[in-house]
Structures are given as C-alpha cells and as structure tokens.
Amino acid sequence: MRTRIRHFRKQRGLTQTELAMRLGTTAATVSRLETADMTVSTGWLERIAGELDVPVTDLLGAQGERSPACMGEVRRGGGVAAFAEPLSLPPSLFSHARTPMVFRAGEALGSYVRGDLLVADCLPMAQAAAALGRDCFAAGEKGDLSFGRLVTLGIDGCLLMPPEEGAHPRNVSAPRWVAPVVTLLRNYPPLKT
User: Fold this and answer.
1) How many other CB atoms are there within 10 angstroms of residue 55's CB atom?
2) Angstrom distances, CA of residue 3 to CA of 24, 31, 35, 37, 97
3) Alpha-carbon distance 103 to 98, whole Å?
4) Which of 39, 54, 110, 123 could form a disulfide bond with 127, CB atoms 3.0-4.6 angstroms apart?
5) Are 31 and 65 within 8 A, CB to CB?
6) CA–CA gap between residue 32 and residue 6 (Å, rounded)
7) Stated pTM of the model
C-alpha cells in the first residue's frame, strides 16, 4: 500500500534515521515503510502518525488527501464574500492545515495583494488561543465570516483587526471556529521577454 509517510517526514524536516529513532526502529525499516516494500499495519500507521503529528488518514495517500473548503474572497474591512464557483487546487498546498480552508484576497489588503490565496487551518474554539497574534478567519454565530489579526479572544467573542490601514476592528460574537492562515500562495506577473 502506498503511503504519504515520506511526504510528511520531509515536511517535518526529519531524516529516515531521525524518524526511526523516534519510532524505536531502523532507518531501513522506515525506508521500506515509505516505499511500500513492507506491509504497513494499523499499528505502524498509528505510531508514525503520532510522531509526525498528522491524522492516520493523511498517511494513506490519495484516500487520505483532504479536500479544502473553498470559502470566499476577502474584502476591505475584513468581510468575506462567498466564491461564485469552488476553486480546484492541488492537495499539496494544504499540507500545513489539518482542516484546510481556502480564501482569496479580492483586492490589495495590507501586505496581501489581489489574487493571493490564503490557506487557513480551521481550529475549534478550545484551541483558538494558539492563533492569537496571527491573521485569521473567524465564523460568527450566524455563519458570517471575518478576517484580520486575532488580537483578543474571550468566552463570548473575539476581535480581529483587518490588514489594511484605517480599517475598523471586527468583533465576532460567539465564534464557532477560528482559522489562522498557514499558507500564502502568490502568483507574480509573468516576465516580459
């Protein structure tokens, strides 16, 4: 069975030897697990997933690839408008997100330029404190989406500061989730030759 062990090992900056040491095995065994020269048991998958900090399903290749939620376009003031059509993007863009969500900058917003794709990782509110100080999306109790730097987080709400100069803070009451930006994809204009 083909797995994505090598992909996540390299993403974490580990050598086969380093992963082997963490697993209490040899680099040769890790190599065989990565190349499908050895049957990968559920036990191995669980141990490897734990060391690489990914869900077991993510190690299962195409079956475990996550489809991102294509959410919408970020507008001035931190508002988000739904996409007219979902985006079709390769799963490799979402490797830093366990629950990937994709947004696009609809115009220049602070350091973001029009067309930037922002991949965010949806976190439950119990884990949202880890995103303080980061650019995030948040869903309010009515499903409305907001974007900005997460500056405060409390039991009944959070405050986001949109990235453009002069924007007013956005208060999100009873947020259902917070999603910090984990990947930025930007296309530069083609060279004129």
Assistant:
1) 13
2) 20, 12, 8, 11, 18
3) 16
4) 123
5) no
6) 11
7) 0.63
How many other CB atoms sit within 10 Å of the CB of residue 134? 14
CB atoms within 10 A of CB 97: 21
Q: What value does the CA radius of gyration of the chain take, rounded to a whole number of Å? A: 19
Largest Cα–Cα distance in the chain?
58
DSSP annotation of 143 reads S
Q: Enumerate residues 6+ apart whose C-beta is below 8 A from 191.
A: none
DSSP 85: S
Instruction: Give me the residue label for tokens 């996540």.
Output: 8
pLDDT digits (tens, 9 = 90+) for 39-78: 677 788 888 888 888 777 677 654 344 455 667 889 999 9
Calculated CA dihedral for residues 33, 35, 38, 42, nearest 10 degrees: 50
Give residue-wise pLDDT tens across range 75-124.
999 988 887 666 666 666 666 777 888 899 999 999 999 999 998 998 88
Q: CB of 134 within 8 A of CB of 189?
A: no
Which sign does the torsion angle of CA 20, 94, 110, 80 carry?
negative
Look up residue 180 and give its two tokens: 């910090």
Query: Phi/psi of residue 190, each to 5°?
Result: -65, 155
Tokens of 17: 């030897």
